[in-house]
Design goal:
4 helices; two-stranded antiparallel ribbon; about 55% helix
Length: about 150
């Protein structure tokens, strides 16, 4: 083992080189023409990231507003449907309450009215025989008036 520690592995030349010069000299990497230095690149990335973030926030805000309006619209459609159903129900009630049979029933039972027996209409013709007035005789005895069927 001691023998391995005494053996020179070729590091003495390298250590002498560092002792003489301090640091090994490196040639600078050759610059490629038309290549910009990355000094301002991070500012552009930050601008783009903030632009994308603001755009996404705006997009989310628009979607939230759209969802709220959609909910409001659905509520109005439901309310319209309910009101249409109620309107149809009330129209049928009005039709049932204003039927002639119902009106006649209320008039006869509640108000004590009696229905008219037969309605007769009298046609009065103009004076044919020189009369200055029309006759109201439904049988037309004088020849001036006739009963209409």
């Amino acid at each position: 083992m001691a023998r391995l520690a005494e053996q020179d592995w070729g590091f003495t030349d390298i250590t002498r080189k560092f002792e003489r010069h301090g640091k090994p000299s490196r040639r600078p990497a050759p610059r490629v023409r038309n290549q910009r230095a990355p000094s301002g690149g991070t500012a552009h990335v930050g601008l783009w990231l903030s632009f994308v973030a603001l755009t996404l926030v705006g997009l989310v805000a628009v979607n939230v507003g759209l969802l709220q309006k959609n909910l409001e619209y659905n509520g109005l459609i439901q309310e319209k449907s309910d009101l249409s159903a109620e309107n149809a129900k009330l129209s049928s009630e009005v039709a049932a309450l204003s039927s002639p049979e119902r009106v006649e029933q209320i008039a006869t039972k509640s108000l004590g009215m009696v229905p008219a027996e037969k309605v007769s209409y009298v046609y009065i013709s103009p004076a044919e025989t020189g009369q200055s007035y029309a006759s109201l005789d439904p049988l037309g005895a004088g020849g001036a008036g006739r009963a209409a069927p």
